[in-house]
Write a structure and sequence with these properties.
heterodimer; A: alpha+beta; Alpha-Beta Plaits; 16% strand; B: mainly beta; Immunoglobulin-like; 14-stranded mixed β-sheet
Chain lengths: 353, 215
Amino acid sequence: MAQTTTKPERRQLAVVFDTNKCIGCQVCSLVCKKLWTEADGRESMWWTIVNTLPGRGTPKDVFTHGGGYRDGQPVPGVLPPKRDWGEAWNFEYEKVFASGTDEDRLIPLQPIDESGTAPTWGPNWDEDMGGGEYPNSYFFYLQQMCMNCSKPACMEACPRSAIYKRHEDGIVLIDEESCNGYRFCAEACPYKRIYFNESRNVAQKCISCFPRLETGVAPACIRQCPGRVQHVDYMDNEDGHIYKLVHKWQVALPLRPDFGCEPNMFYVPPISPAAFNENGEFDESRSRIPIEYLRELFGPGVDAALATLEAEREKVAAGGESELVDILISRRWHDLMGPFKTDPAKLDGKPVV
Amino acid sequence: MSNQNLIAARVQHKSDSPLGPGDAAWQGADDVTFSLEPTPPESQPSAYVQASWAGKERGDVRSLATRALISESLLMLHLEWSVADASPAITDYNVYADACGVLFPTNGEAQLATMGNPEAPVTAWYWRAGSEDPSVLTATGLGTTRPTGGHSLQVSAELTGNTWRVVFAHPLGTGGVNLAQGDSTLVGFAVWSGAAGERAGLKSHTPDWQELRIA
C-alpha cells in the first residue's frame, strides 16, 4: 500500500529578549562560542553577541552598513573588514609566564590580534560606555544573533540559492555545500549577523542550535542564560510566552523594523528611570533614555509598549496580578523554553551538542 | 560567433604536468586576443545583486589573450590578462580574489549567456587566485554551478605586476575532453577582478562562443 506523507505545518520559531533583565554577562555569547565557533576558521566569530547600547556594536557601527529593504526593494550593503568585527585574540602567555626577566613578568597579560599587535576593536568593544551626560547617562544590553527573518534579505541576495528557510520552524540556514563564499548575504543582512569563514570560503552564522531543537532542547544561549532573559517558542502557540508578549500584550518589538526584514527575534524595550533635573531631583516628566532613540531601535510601537509595561508593573505594585509581569518574571525556568524543555544531559544516545 | 579561431598547436611535451605559464613552448602557439564584456546586472539571478550593481562600473578586464597547445596527453589553455589592481588572495571579509574560467557546452545547443539550461548543460574550468586547486563545474543555468566529482584538471598560475598568466591543463580522453586532430569545440572565457568586487555572475566574459580547433 502506498504511503502518503504529509508536509509538516509551516511554523515560525521566535525569540523574545527582555532588555530589562539582561546583565551583560555574555554567558549566551560564551556558550555559543563553546558549542559552535571555537575552531575550523570560526575562531573570530561570535554568532551571538551582547552589545551595550547606545554603542557602535558588532561589527563597528553595526546598523550603518546598508542591506535589508526600503519600500520593498533591496538596499545595497557593504561588508566591513574583519578588524571591525574583531579578530580572534591570543594573549602573551609566553612573554608573561615563561620569560626570564622580572620586567616581562610584571606586564599584565595583554591581548594580541592575528597580526601580533594590540587590538583596537573587538566584539562589544565599547562595553558599558553608553550614552547621555552625567547624571543622565544610561545604557542597556542587547543580544544579537540571526533573527530568522520572515523576509530574509540574506536568502534573497544569494545568487546560488544556498540559503533556505525551513518549513517546519522558519529557521534560516546556509547550505555550505552550495555556498561559494560570495558574501552577498553578509552584505544584505542589515543586522550584520553573517560571518565569513576565510579558511573554508563559506558564509556562516547562528544556526539557532537546530540539532538541539530537533531533540527538544532549547538553544544554548537561551537555556544557559543566568538572567532568564530570553523566551523561545513557536509564534503560533497562542498559550505560549512569545505569542502573548508579541501579539497579546504587544510589549516585545522587532529590532529596526525599518530594515524591512520582519525579524523573528523581539525585544522588550528598556524601562527608563526618570531623568535628573538640574537640582539633582527626579523629573518624572522626562525619561533618562531618550524615547526618540528607542523609537529608532524598536519602531513606533515602543511608546505603547512602555506604557503597557508601566501600567502592569503598577498594578502588581498595588497588590494586583498581571499575566504580563508573571511571564516576564518567569518564576519557573522551564516556562521560558516553550516546547524545548528537554534536559540535554538526559537524552539517550549521543549527547546533543 | 566570432571568426577568431583558437587553434591548439601540437607540442612535444611528455610530462603529465602542464607547461608553466612562462614556458618557451607557448611561443609556438598563436595568440588570439578576445574582447571581453561585462555581464549585465539585470542578468544576475538575485534582485539584491541587481540593485547593488546597477550603475556601478563593471567589467574591469576588457581583453584576454589566449593560446592553446595539445600534447599526447594534455589539452593546455594559456590565459593572460591584466587588471587595474591585482587581488591574489582572499585576505579579509571584504576582499575578493581574481579568478578566471573556461566554459564548454557539455552537449547540445547550450547558451553561453545563460550558462546552459537543464537540457543543455555547460562545463566550466574555474580557478580562483589563492586557491591551490582548480574546479570543474557543471551548470544548467545562472547560479547553478556545482562541482563535479573527482577531476584531473590542473592549473599553473603566475602574477607579474598586475598581469596574470594562467595555464589550465586537462588530460585528453577524460572529463569530456575527447579531442582528436581536426576536431573543434565551442569555448568561452571569463575573468573576475577581485579588487573590483567581481564574483559570481559579475565578471568580464566573451559574449559569444568561440571555436577551439585541434591542429
